Automatic annotation (TrEMBL):
CDD domains: STAS_SulP_like_sulfate_transporter
Signal peptide residue numbers: none
A GO cellular component annotation in the UniProt record: membrane
Membrane spanning residue stretches: 77-104, 124-152, 164-184, 190-209, 330-352, 373-394, 414-432, 439-460, 472-500
Cellular localisation: Membrane
Keywords in alphabetical order: Membrane, Transmembrane, Transmembrane helix
Name of the protein described by the UniProt record: SLC26A/SulP transporter domain-containing protein
Pfam families, A to Z: Sulfate_transp (PF00916)
PANTHER family linked to this entry: SULFATE TRANSPORTER (PTHR11814)
Record's bilayer topology term: Multi-pass membrane protein
Organism: Ladona fulva (Scarce chaser dragonfly)
SLC26A/SulP transporter domain residues: 91-471, 623-676
Gene3D superfamilies assigned to the protein according to its UniProt record, in alphabetical order: STAS domain (3.30.750.24)
InterPro entries in UniProt: S04_transporter_CS, SLC26A/SulP_dom, SLC26A/SulP_fam, STAS_dom_sf
């Protein structure tokens, strides 16, 4: 029965969700039944079985899951659709079309980053848009293939077929949905800012590196940073001049970027310039394709072209659970084994990318629901896998376009999806003429701003040690693998957290109470847990002996101690016993009631605590008086009195009667005892 109620209490008592993190509590064990999500005590003979209690709990959960509030939270379109007006519709239409014109060249380019045929990028850019419009909660998030997801896909598909990429999309969706159902949003918090900076900077450099060969018009292999650059330098003499010139032309900015620097004429033409600026990707790609087509008509091919793009929409079918490569057949488990850690890393980083996007363009009025984003991105990936998509998420570059276009709701994704569908249905024959150099330039221009070297200086000024996980992540991602790099960075951060937990800062100082009693004040700066208890115990003991001369009372200020575990409680019990053995008082100040109960449960002998200065004075006074009453014997005086003031008055009155040999003997004995301790 005890185990049964441990399980019931652990499941039922969920205190709440904070940024997607599930907070659980474990109340006092008892017997009873579940009513409205709470355990109600009942007589022992009336307790039901586990099946009955589980059924009641399940009914309660189902009833709570189908409330109107939860429905609006999990299907956000139901919350904003009733108030959707013409103004919001126009804003979404403009933003959706603008993002769609950006998404088409990016989708083709990202398929190249992923090492897949160009149609797979387009397949990934429409279905997720429709799903996210229903379940998404971030209005600026434009769902589709991203640079990070594409490069991770490339690293895990070396020597594998496109079917593995589609299965990775399906599994990523399943993992993201599972994380959402289990309220695992708190996992994102373990990826710190320095680790994120190191990862995105390295990923951007790797992505740009993979596109340099297309800028130079080289046909080389390789996916790793060092390998690609070795091949580039080996074949640098084969550089195609026209591809290089075309790629550099894309980097020329179109339109001013700062509204404050515009002239009066530019302000009049602001809307036109804004449209040109936000649509520059599609403009450059179209112009490049037209130029390539004209060269083709005249019998010349100065550029390396994208080539054949499979026309039409993809069939709606289940993701491939078997694949064949070089006459070797892979079943589902073989495909999963080949994908390896990507099954966890890709969905985790997809969520991180979308959360970062939401924070970057937050209006400060809405609270991000990480759990809902997990569910929305998971559903988008899951459904997109049925149209042969690669892993998708919200991209920062498209999010910036969405934001600048004034998008009002996630419904802008619908118009983006429609634009991509029209492109797939009617324009794929023309995509064959797009030069790879222009697509490579689109990618490089999109990721170059992801390299965040500018944050090194602020990190150095604020906390230099944070550069260690940042640089470790950066170089590990660059020279080993992206997945291993971010794991290494997270691991270093966890080690720092564990070290801080195991080695808390302990402040030691001498102090006087309001009544003039001297004591040693010891203040730990955090809770006591099993890795730190021996360290704190040794520090307090050393302070009590050296600074407190094994006699001055030691007061542990516990204001920062929010909790202790069993090992820590046992260590503190041993500390109290050590002080008791040498007759040195030790007191606890500002101790939480819950921690007091823990120490009392361990039946700690001579455990003394107080909550205010008055109680501290009362506890300090006996120790001082005991020491005071012994002074008369050290001096060899025969005086009476038990109160502190009274004893000292009598000592000073009879100080002339001090017996020299008694005093010398007492001082010598005290010195010997202190030296031998």
């Amino acid at each position: 029965m005890a185990f049964e109620w441990r399980l019931a209490y652990f499941i039922v008592n969920r205190k709440g969700i904070d940024n997607g993190a599930l907070v659980l509590s474990m109340p006092e064990l008892t017997t009873g039944k579940v009513e409205d999500g709470n355990v109600v005590k009942e007589d022992e003979e009336g307790g039901g079985g586990l099946c009955g209690n589980g059924r009641e709990w399940l009914e309660t959960k189902v009833r709570r899951s189908f409330t109107k509030k939860m429905l609006l939270r999990r299907i956000p379109i139901l919350a904003w659709l009733p108030t959707y007006n013409a103004s919001a519709a126009v804003s979404d239409l403009v933003a959706g079309i603008t993002v769609g014109l950006t998404a088409i060249p990016q989708a083709i380019a990202y398929s190249n980053v992923a090492g897949l045929p160009p149609q797979y990028g387009l397949y990934s850019a429409f279905m997720g848009c429709f799903v996210y419009a229903v379940f998404g909660s971030v209005r600026v998030s434009a769902i589709g293939p991203t640079a990070i997801a594409s490069i991770l896909t490339r690293e895990n598909l070396i020597g594998l077929s496109p079917e593995f990429a589609v299965l990775l999309t399906f599994l990523s969706g399943c993992v993201e949905l599972l994380m959402g159902f289990l309220q695992l949003g708190f996992l994102i918090d373990f990826i710190s800012g320095p680790v994120s900076v190191g990862f995105t900077s390295a990923a951007a450099i790797i992505i740009a590196t993979t596109q340099v060969k297309d800028i130079l018009g080289l046909s080389i292999t390789g996916s790793k940073f060092v390998e690609v650059w070795e091949n580039i330098f080996e074949h640098i003499s084969e550089t195609r001049l026209w591809d290089t010139l075309l790629g550099k032309a894309k980097d020329i900015p179109i339109g001013p970027s700062d509204m404050k620097e515009k002239s009066s004429f530019q302000k009049i033409a602001g809307k036109a310039l804004w449209l040109v600026s936000t649509s520059r990707n599609i403009i450059v790609v179209v112009v490049s394709a037209v130029a390539a087509y004209e060269f083709e008509l005249h019998g010349s091919r100065p550029f390396v072209l994208t080539g054949f793009v499979k026309p039409g929409l993809p069939p709606f079918q289940s993701p491939p659970f078997t694949a064949e490569i070089n006459n070797e057949t892979f079943n589902f488990f073989g495909m999963v084994s080949s994908l390896g850690s990507a099954i966890l890393v890709v969905p985790l980083l997809a969520i991180l990318e979308n959360v970062a996007l939401a924070k970057a363009f937050s209006d400060g009025q809405s609270r991000l629901d990480a759990t809902q984003e997990m569910l929305a991105i998971g559903a988008s990936n899951l459904v997109s896998s049925f149209v042969s998509a690669i892993p998708i998420s919200g991209a920062l570059s498209r999010g910036a376009v969405n934001h600048s276009s004034g998008v009002a709701t996630p419904f802008g994704n619908v118009y983006t999806g429609i634009i991509v569908i029209l492109a797939l249905q009617y324009f794929t024959p023309y995509f064959a003429y797009i030069p790879k150099a222009s697509l490579a330039a689109v990618i490089i221009a999109a990721v170059v701003f992801m390299v965040e070297f500018h944050v090194v200086k602020p990190i150095w000024r604020t906390k230099k040690i944070d550069l260690i996980p940042a640089l470790a992540t950066f170089f590990s991602c660059l020279f080993i693998r992206l997945e291993l790099g971010i794991v290494i960075g997270i691991g270093i951060n966890v080690i720092f957290l564990l070290y801080g937990s195991a080695r808390p800062t302990v402040k030691v100082e001498k102090s006087l109470s309001s009544s003039g009693f001297e004591y040693l004040l010891v203040t730990p700066d955090r809770s006591l847990v099993f890795p730190s208890v021996e360290y704190v115990r040794n520090l307090v003991t050393k302070a009590g002996v050296k600074l407190g001369y094994s006699s001055i009372p030691v007061v542990i200020d516990s204001r920062h101690i929010q909790g202790v575990d069993f090992t820590a409680a046992k260590g503190i019990k041993s500390l109290i016993e050590d002080f008791d053995n040498r007759k040195q008082p030790i007191l606890f100040y500002n101790l939480k009631p819950s921690i007091v109960e823990i120490f009392q449960e361990l039946r700690t002998k001579d455990f003394k605590y107080c909550h205010n200065d008055a109680e501290l004075n009362d506890l300090l006074r006996p120790a001082i008086i005991i020491a005071t009453t012994q002074v008369k014997d050290i001096l060899g005086l025969s005086i009476t009195g038990s109160k502190f003031v009274e004893v000292w008055e009598n000592i000073f009155e009879h100080i002339s009667e001090t017996r020299l040999w008694d005093t010398l003997l007492g001082v010598i004995c005290m010195a010997i005892l202190l030296l031998l301790r």
